[in-house]
Amino acid sequence: MILPLTSLPDGGKTNFPDDDVMAGRAEAICADTDFRRRVGQAMASRFTDREPAEHLEQRIYDGFPNRADQSLMDQFHRTDWQGRRKIAEHLSDQRVREYARRLIYMEAPEILSDGARAEMDAWIRDRVLNEDT
């Protein structure tokens, strides 16, 4: 099982190795790109028999952002909105790029082009005014 130790309940660490051993294991996992790729494929294969989700919110667990996108995401959260708009253009994961666009639209719509704002207005209108329950 791979999970953050902080997600264990109190007393849940009693049968775990010490922190140095756990840190070594975490480093080994981070360094083994093939292992991480295989885990990602195994997780993705659990859902191969389902139709692709229509909405972004339903696709959030369809994969994990790559290291470059993770780095860009960290930068995104540390910069101003104008900088965030520029960073969002470089995200390779379409899902993450769309979430970035939505955040910018909700928090700083004035920095978007008229076309981008119109696209986002249409997105909201389509989501709210559709007849799909």
Structural class: mainly alpha
Largest sheet features? none
N-to-C span: 37 Å
Domain tally: 2
Write a compact overview of the structure shown.
The protein is mainly α and 133 residues long. The chain has two domains: 1-53, no CATH class; 65-133, no CATH class. 56% of the residues lie in helices and 0% in strands.
What does this structure look like?
This protein has 133 residues and is mainly alpha-helical. The protein folds into two domains: 1-53, no CATH class; 65-133, no CATH class. The chain is 56% helix and 0% strand. α3 runs antiparallel to α4 (81-88). It is extended. The two termini are 37 Å apart.
Write a concise keyword list for the protein shown above.
6 helices; mainly alpha; single chain; 2 domains; 133 residues
Produce the secondary structure layout.
Blueprint: H1 19-31, H2 33-45, H3 67-78, H4 81-88, H5 94-107, H6 114-128
Helix pairs in contact: 3-4, 4-5
